[in-house]
Structures are given as structure tokens and as C-alpha cells.
Amino acid sequence: MGRDGNTEGPAAPAVRIEGLWKRFGEQVAVAGIDLEIPAGQFIGLVGPNGAGKTTTLSMVTGLLRPDSGRVEIGGTDVWQDPAAVKARIGVLPEGLRMFERLSGRELLTYMGRLRGLSGDDVDRRATQLLDVLDLATSQHKLVIDYSTGMRKKIGLAAALLHNPEVLFLDEPFEGVDPVSAQTIRTVLERYTASGATVVFSSHVMELVESLCSWVAVLAGGRIRAHGTLAEVRGDAPTLQEAFLELVGVRTTADDSLDWLGGGVR
Ligand SMILES: Nc1ncnc2c1ncn2[C@@H]1O[C@H](COP(=O)(O)OP(=O)(O)OP(=O)(O)O)[C@@H](O)[C@H]1O
């Protein structure tokens, strides 16, 4: 059942992308993406380095204006009504910039108030999130003194505070230890179980395979495949192998890098 309690018919897509393009000078970063992302699932956006994942997510979440194309989230056009859309989404961007001189707790209070929550609600939700994400003991430390994993977790808490319908995460597990990764995973699984949608980008196929029910493969700024995990994997034994086949594996000639290694010094 969706979050709105509607049990009839296929749910409207969480995100609808039509004809999305972005160029940086000569470089085409996103080359005409059309995609409907289903609601209420764990969605993986995967692709090699430079595929266009961050650029796509930035345009979808209203952080970067597309050259052309449209994005709708829950039926609202992101670039026509960015404020309405931003109230309904949570974002953990790549290279997260935060207010470094606030403590973790202060950061959540600030973000919650900015989102229009009452002081009591912010306090209650922040306490719970800090607790679940194992940050309670470091809540009064300044964010500048947080480790990479702690930064991801406080960023995730800030993105979840207003209970968004769709959560976008750019490489949420990068630089995160297995214990913190498991904590993040548990929180996200609970969140999607209630009908919310998580869209996250990654190039770690094992992670995507174990977490996501639906994936889109991006390479060279285009969608190469999309659908349920089983559809995208096809006959390949793993998503990793399906992915390598889809994006094309570049082989290295035998005599290149012949200077590298111990034997010829
Ligand atoms: N601000 C920018 N100016 C110029 N080129 C850019 C800019 N942002 C991205 N690009 C280029 O657009 C292409 C797509 O980059 P993008 O960061 O979206 O890829 P990605 O799939 O997120 O890669 P990664 O997995 O390495 O983070 C790359 O060729 C990149 O060099």
C-alpha cells in the first residue's frame, strides 16, 4: 500500500524524467534521459565513473538547471515549482557541504526549523534519529570534527527529518565502515517499508544487488537498461556481470604498462 493509502491500480511513478539533457561546454554529461522511477521501492542508479549520475541527480533534485527536459516528482514539475518539490524530498548530495561550526544536534535543529517543523517536533525527531544512527554520544561535537561516516549519517538524519516522500542519496555508503553501513541500511529499509522511495547512486554492484529492487544503468549520459533487478540482470549470474556487459569492458593491451612491476627496474 502506498503512503497515501491508495490500494487501487499501479501507483504513479515517484519520479518522471523526460528528455533530460546537460552539457558542460563540449562535454555532454546527460544525453537525453527518459525514465519513470516507481514509487515505494529501493532504487539504484548505477554507472561507471563519469556516467552522469551526479549530474542527473542534481537536475532531478532542483540543484542544477537542465539544458532541456522535464522532471516531475510526485506529479509536480521540479523546475516550475521547486519550493513545493523540495518540501517533499530529502537529498544527501555528493561532497556534502554542511555548517561545520554547528554541532550535530544544532545542525538538525537548524535544518528542521528551516523545514518548518515546530521546536518540539524537531527535538523529538532529532533525538530519535541521533539515537538510531548511533550519533547520540557525538551530538554535541562540531560537525567539522566528525569522521566521514559520521558526516554521512548526520547528513542522512538532516535529509530525513521532515519525513520526505522521496529520498535521493548520492553514494551514501562511500567511506562508511560496515557497522555504520548496516545502521544506514536498516534505517533506509524501514523508511521504504512504509511506502517511501529511496533513489541512490552507486558503482558498488554487490551493494545495489543486495539493497535495490529496481535499477537503472547509466553510461555515457544515457540509460542503458532499467527495470527490476531480475530484468536488468537477465541471464547474467550477477548484476556486476550484467553491468560490465551493458557498459562494455575496456581491455588493456598486453604490452601496455609493461614498465609497471618489480621485474624490470
Ligand atoms: N561542473 C562540471 N563542469 C564540467 N564538466 C562536468 C561538470 N560536472 C560534471 N561534468 C562532466 O560530466 C560527466 C558526468 O559527470 P558526473 O559527475 O555526473 O558523473 P558520475 O556518474 O556521477 O561519476 P562518478 O561516479 O565518478 O562520481 C563527466 O564527464 C564530468 O567530467
Automatic annotation (TrEMBL):
<dbReference type="GO" id="GO:0005524">
    <property type="term" value="F:ATP binding"/>
</dbReference>
<dbReference type="InterPro" id="IPR003593">
    <property type="entry name" value="AAA+_ATPase"/>
</dbReference>
<keyword id="KW-0067">ATP-binding</keyword>
<keyword id="KW-0046">Antibiotic resistance</keyword>
<dbReference type="InterPro" id="IPR003439">
    <property type="entry name" value="ABC_transporter-like_ATP-bd"/>
</dbReference>
<keyword id="KW-0547">Nucleotide-binding</keyword>
<keyword id="KW-0813">Transport</keyword>
<dbReference type="InterPro" id="IPR027417">
    <property type="entry name" value="P-loop_NTPase"/>
</dbReference>
<feature type="domain" description="ABC transporter">
    <location>
        <begin position="15"/>
        <end position="245"/>
    </location>
</feature>
<dbReference type="InterPro" id="IPR050763">
    <property type="entry name" value="ABC_transporter_ATP-binding"/>
</dbReference>
<dbReference type="Pfam" id="PF00005">
    <property type="entry name" value="ABC_tran"/>
</dbReference>
<protein>
    <submittedName>
        <fullName>ABC transporter ATP-binding protein</fullName>
    </submittedName>
</protein>
